[in-house]
Structure formats: structure tokens, C-alpha cells
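Re: that chain you flagged

S.,

Sorry for the slow reply, it's been a week of failed gels. I finally had a moment to sit down with the sequence you sent. For the record, here it is as I used it:
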Amino acid sequence: MNYFFFLDHPDKDLKSSVEICNYEPISNFYNKPQDKKNIYIFYIESGSWKNEIIEEIDYGDRKIIEKNDLPNFLKNKNIFISLSSRKIKSNHSPIIDNSLDSTPAWRSNIKIFNNNSSCSYQGELPSSLLNKKLSLVSCSPFLQLDNDNFQNYFYLVNMYKEPIIEKFSVDILDSNKNILKQLTCYTNTINCHDLTFLKEFNYKNKMFVFRSQSYGGIPIYFSKSSDNSQMSLEHTHPPTEYLFSGNRMFFQKRKKSHWFE
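Prediction finished late last night. Pasting the C-alpha cells below so you have them in one place:
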């Protein structure tokens, strides 16, 4: 299964949505049943995973789910969404299987918007990552630091099979490995941090590295104008995605070991 998520933002003028599609990207590369599926949301409550069915969706259909449309008791929770043909008990933890594995990846449209503007990206969190305690090295040029009218935010989407909310640190480094700041993040959380403080550094090449050896996740960078009329979302790929062929894991290990030294 793949999991999707809402990018909640502290600015209450901004809303979040996920567009779920019950059809594979390319049918020639997908050999699993093409059938109706249930849209499930997963969240943690009182130290346990819980889930709810939003609705059933026919094969070939799509559905836009806005965070504000969820019941009130869910609006302040970190919500993860998935599709499944199974009937899942309400206290069942997130499923780890290959039912949504496809080429290219089975994704959703993850969006931040208001009445005047919007931005989105095609993303997913594969369930295969849920049972791995990942590390993080994300090299980000996706920041608008030269214009005081723009604000920048860092999202780190972490989902882990155990229903724990555990604190961990993410270091922000310059290209010389100097630690500029430590961010506090949490597991099973859509973490969001304001990066305004980075404008204080007189740093010519504007490249920052976000690093964590404790836990990882999906790093996403959000920039917006102060009046919310312009905005953008970008994410960085894991190091293995920088290579088309060859020993991709060797390259990833070398890159991570460089930044973890």
C-alpha cells in the first residue's frame, strides 16, 4: 500500500487536500485487481493506531478530500490516507503490502491552497518504509531567500509502523558541514518548520543540507508570498533516485556517509 497525507500549515488562511485516484498510472505495468476500494484514514489516538473509512471509490474514479471536511475530532490529528480492497478493523495498524506497487509509483495529488492560489505535487509514502528506521540527507536548493516577501517552510513527513510519537532532531548544515540549526521533529507526524531564520546567514551558494541519523521521512519544501498569492511545493528524492542504473545503493551509502561524518 501507499500512504498519502495532508500538509497542514500554521497559516489558517491555507487549506490542505489530497486527491485520491483509484486507477494505476499505467495499466500495462500493473497486474493486480482493478476493483472498488475503500478510502481509509489512519491516525494515532491514546497510543494506538486507529482507522476510519471515508467512503468507497469505484475503479477509474477519483476523489478530492479536504482536511477541513473531516470530522472535528480529526482536524488536529496527523492523518495518513490509503486505498485498500480489504475490510480493515478500526483498531488495525497501517497495512504493509504491495497492493499499490506500480511503475511509475501510484501517487496522489497533495495540495495546499486558499481562495486565490494553490500548489501541489504528486507524492506517496510507500508502506515498505513503515518498518524501516530511516535516516535523512536532503540537499535543498528549493528556498526563496533573496526576497523578504517570501516565507519558507520545511515539512518532514514521518510514518512508522509502531504507534509512537518520539522526538528526534534534524540538523541543518551548510556545504562545509557546519550545523546552523537543529529542528525538533516527531515520528508519525507531518512536521512543519518555519525557515525564516536561514535568511540571517550570509551564505552565498544558498545550499542547505537537512540531516538526521535517527529517523527520516519525506522532505518537502514550501515557499509562499506573505499575502499567499504565490506559492510552490518541492521535494527532494532519496539519493538512489539520482542514478538511472548501476549500484545505486553504493552511491546512496557514500553520499550519506559523507554527510554523517
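What I noticed first: The CA atoms of residues 170 and 212 lie 5 Å apart.

Talk soon,
D.
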